[in-house]
Design a protein that fits this description.
Blueprint lengths: L2 H8 L19 H11 L6 H6 L18 H7 L1 H14 L21 H28 L5 H18 L9 H5 L38
Helix pairs in contact: 2-6, 4-5, 5-6, 6-7
Length: about 220
């Protein structure tokens, strides 16, 4: 047995997450994908996680100043975050489930074009990154970003990622993509070629193998 096989045998297999591959995309800055990965795995350096590692900190949410800072409150339940999730839900024409970090991605439609699916994904990731950006601006620079500036930042990031996306859209998606200033990547339709069928010469016979003609 090789050392690689021995290591894979002894090491516990991590569960395969459906979103794990999708968040790492050329259309999304790696830092933004990483910001989603960290709160999902309880790795974000919020006050609650710093306390669990032995740090003594006086904690308060920098965005609402109403309660202690924890990862779930900051990204999901803070007044500032809740307003952003409500706003982006209206833009996406859906209701964002902000009960957990994992449930945020459930807003993506089960059936839609690949470019529209990308817009839903980047909207969630850029919103989470913007919440963290606003928190750090307030805590370390004493600058309080307005709700309007946060919306403008998210909208600009979605437009940038959407225009880089390699996904394809349908004609019915044009209005939705226009609302985010994203160009249309239409699917390429193959040219239709006219085919004339001729009766085969004797003694050849045409065999109906595709079921297109019955009793004809």
């Amino acid at each position: 047995m090789t050392s690689k096989l021995a290591c894979s045998f002894l090491r516990s297999q991590a569960p395969v997450l459906p979103w794990a591959a999708s968040i790492w995309s050329a259309a999304i800055p790696p830092s933004h994908s990483f910001i989603y990965w960290r709160p999902y795995n309880r790795k974000m350096p919020t006050d609650d996680n710093l306390r669990s590692r032995g740090c003594v900190v006086v904690s308060v949410c920098s965005l609402c100043m109403k309660t202690d800072e924890c990862s779930d409150h900051l990204f999901l339940h803070c007044d500032f975050a809740s307003r952003l999730w409500d706003w982006i839900g209206v833009k996406l024409h859906c209701v964002i489930d902000s009960s957990s970090v994992a449930s945020l991605l459930d807003c993506r439609p089960a059936r839609c074009s690949s470019q529209v699916s990308d817009i839903f994904l980047v909207a969630i990731l850029h919103t989470i990154h913007t919440i963290w950006w606003a928190r750090n601006a307030m805590r370390f620079s004493n600058v309080s970003p307005s709700f309007h500036s946060a919306k403008f930042r998210i909208h600009s990031l979605i437009a940038s990622s959407g225009n880089i996306s390699k996904g394809k859209c349908l004609h019915s998606d044009f209005k939705f993509l226009d609302s985010f200033a994203v160009k249309h990547n239409c699917r390429n339709v193959k040219d239709i070629i006219s085919v004339l069928w001729k009766v085969p010469s004797s003694p050849w016979l045409k065999v109906n193998t595709d079921g297109s003609v019955i009793d004809g």
